[in-house]
Every structure is written in C-alpha cells, then in structure tokens.
Amino acid sequence: MVWFVLLLWIVEVFNLVTGHALVRFGIFPRRISGLSGILFAPFLHGSITHLLMNTLPLFILGCLVLVHGRRTLFKITPFIIVVSGLGVWIMGRSAIHVGASSLIFGYFGFLVFRGLIKRSLTSMGISILTIAVYGGLVWGMFPGVPGVSWEGHLFGFLAGILCARMDL
After folding, report:
1. Where are the alpha helices (DSSP H) in the chain?
2. How many domains does the chain have?
3. What CATH number has the domain bearing residue 121?
4. CB atoms within 10 A of CB 65
5. Cα separation values, 55 from 20, 26, 35, Å
6. Where, by residue number, does the polypeptide cross the bilayer (predicted)?
7. Average pLDDT score over residue span 116-140
8. How does DSSP classify residue 46?
9. Residue 32 in 3-state DSSP?
10. Mean of per-residue pLDDT scores for the chain
C-alpha cells in the first residue's frame, strides 16, 4: 500500500507541475474519449487537498484488505477500478470524474460485506472495525457536495460488495 500511495503522490506532483493538465484523462461519462478515464481516474486528483483527503483512508482500508491476503488485494483492486469506472461512465453526470475515492469506497464495501458473508472471526472483526472507523462514508454515496463524484463513491461501494459476494 505504501508503494501505491507513493505512486498517487508522484502522479499528483507531475499533475501539479503541468497545471493539473492530467485531469482531462479522468472519466467523462458517455463519451468514447472518456472511456480511458476508467483506468486513469483513480490515479488522478483535482488538487493536493483532494489527494490528502484520500491518502489516509486509502492506505488504512487497503491495509485492512491486505489482512485477507495480497492475492485478494491484487484481485479486487482492478475489479473495483473497472466496475466502478464503468458505472460512472454509464450513469455519471456530465463532468470529469477523478480520484481514488471509488477505490476507497470499494474497499469499504468489500470489508463490510466480507464479514457478513464469510462470518469468520477475522472477517467479522475487520467488518466491525471498518464500520466503526469509516461508517460515515455511507453519506458520501448521496448527491450533495458540489464537485464531489458521489457516483464514483456509490459505484465503488457496489463494486466492493460484488467482490465480497463473488469471493474474490
């Protein structure tokens, strides 16, 4: 997770130097040119503040996913990125969507529902811990804050639940 977060910061420094020109590679719903954003959006952020807000939750939730094994992390991460990105591309409002939030919400959904589905002591403990610390994330899946991709949050969460359900 350290390397992944470091990569996000390297991309953000480059993005900052270019006047945030990379943001144009985010997801732009229902435009063919916006399809490539499905893969790039989680690595791009609108500002340093945006990345700062995503760094700690991504790191902590990613580490909690790692408790289930590296293989699990490596399987669910691309799945969440692609499924949430497709959801935003198909149903998102007309705006450029960027940020690792979809991945954060995907990890959150996975961790919560993995405990409910697996019912092992470890999975349930992680699920309870995740809800206790990050339960407030649920409110981010509803429209309300201008400029925030609640669609990315919602589809990330749903992709995470799907990962738990598919036992990835």
Report:
1. 2-17, 37-40, 48-66, 70-91, 101-118, 121-134, 150-166
2. 1
3. 1.20.1540.10
4. 27
5. 18, 18, 25
6. 43-66, 73-92, 98-117, 124-142
7. 96
8. S
9. helix
10. 96
pLDDT in tens, 138-167: 999 999 888 899 999 999 999 999 999 999
Cut 0.85: pTM above it: yes
Lowest mean pLDDT among 16-20, 52-56, 109-113, 145-149: 145-149
Radius of gyration of the chain (CA): 15
Q: Tokens 């007309």 label which residue?
A: 94
69: its two tokens: 């094994």
Residue 94 burial by Cβ neighbours in a 10 Å radius (0-12, 13-18, 19+): exposed
Query: For tokens 């509803």, what's the residue?
Result: 142
Helix (H, G, I), strand (E, B) or coil at 97: strand
